[in-house]
Hints:
Elements: H1 4-22, H2 27-44, H3 47-63, H4 67-79, H5 88-101
Amino acid sequence: MNTGSKGYAVWAADVERVRGDIIAADWAAAEAAYRSSLAIARGQRAGFFVCKAALSLARLLQSRGRRKEGHEVLEQCLAQLHEGEDVMTMRQARMMLGELQG
């Protein structure tokens, strides 16, 4: 199946996020991939992909003892979402936000 460059562009943020998951053992490289994913998703105004990237980045930051930073990433993500958007990823982000506060 040939999706062309436009087809890839739709998934670029998530591809970058998954790359971060794959290289997670190298936390600095994974963080860079997650931040890149966030930037791509924000540029596309793709709220769902912003949330997925923010959740992955926040998990990594939490594992590195950077809870406050992870909290800020998730807070920014959730503040940009529309009321009524309640998919699993967003529920997970809200739950993790609560964990990072405590």
